[in-house]
Amino acid sequence: MTEAPPERAYLLVLYYSRNGATRSMAQQIARGAEQAGIETRIRTVPAVSTVCEATADSIPAEGDLFCSEADLANCAGLALGSPTRFGNMAAPLKYFLDSTSSLWLSGALIGKPAAVFSASSSLHGGQESTLLTMMLPLLHHGMLITGLPYSEQDLLTTESGGTPYGPTHVAGHTRGRSLDETEIKLCQAQGRRLGALALKLYSGSHR
Predict the structure, then answer these.
(1) What's the predicted TM-score (pTM) here?
(2) What angle do CA 90, 2, 71 make, to 5 degrees?
(3) What is the pLDDT of residues 29-64, one digit of tens each?
(4) What pLDDT is attached to residue 5?
(5) Distance (Å, whole) CA 14 – CA 93
(6) In sequence order, what DSSP letters do the residues of 135-163 get, joined into one string?
């Protein structure tokens, strides 16, 4: 049975996180979106096995719920986040996106706004190429990519994360560095911008 579309618009914040940094960014992006007046759903995806086929429980033991196809199909906008993996998104997130052909065929995501975010252990660890490659499947789905304009002054002064393609975070070589004030501000700015755009487009299409 297909889940009925929600009565109210929501922004889907979908991420994969191994050590918690990308999850922290997802929470800050959701906070910014809520400041724009839109509800949010924070979802993740299960890990994938490199040695054999493995299955995960439908509800994780801890943390955010796994994303369903209905979560994605019915969102008013999408923020997509991943740690860098050799300049690309992590395999679990790519695996999930590779399973969304039915949404591509139905055009469920066409015209909806999207943004991307990422974290790496080093300053030049492939953040920008990760963001750019994350945009590709969203463009194939017909989504409208929104980044961070330089009216966000923190982009001009950041000494850690932050790009015009989307917010980023430098976790440090031990992966234990928390988001700094600038990274938090840029994550929230992206959330506000994406949330406001999602609400505007949703309202215009549901008059």
Answers:
(1) 0.91
(2) 35
(3) 999 999 999 999 999 999 986 666 655 666 777 779
(4) 61
(5) 9
(6) HHHHHHTT-EE----TTSTHHHH-SSS-B
Residues 83 and 7 sit within 8 Å (Cβ to Cβ):
no
Burial of 32 (0-12, 13-18, 19+ CB in 10 A): buried
HEC profile for 179-203? CCHHHHHHHHHHHHHHHHHHHHHHH
Enter the tokens of residue 143.
């989504």
Distant-in-sequence, close-in-space partners of 42: CB < 8 Å, separation ≥ 6: 13, 15, 26, 27, 30, 64
Say how far apart CA 34 and CA 89 lie, in whole Å: 26
Q: What is the dihedral of CA 74, 76, 77, 78, to 10 degrees?
A: -20
pLDDT value of residue 3: 58
CATH superfamily of 10-205: Flavodoxin domain (3.40.50.360)
**Of the candidates 65, 205, 85, which has an alpha carbon nearest to the alpha carbon of residue 144?**
205
115: left (phi over 0), alpha (psi -120 to 50) or beta: beta
The predicted structure's pLDDT at residue 106? 97
Find the helix packing angle between 21-35 and 181-205, rounded to 10°: 50
Residues in the chain where the model's pLDDT stays below 50? 1-2
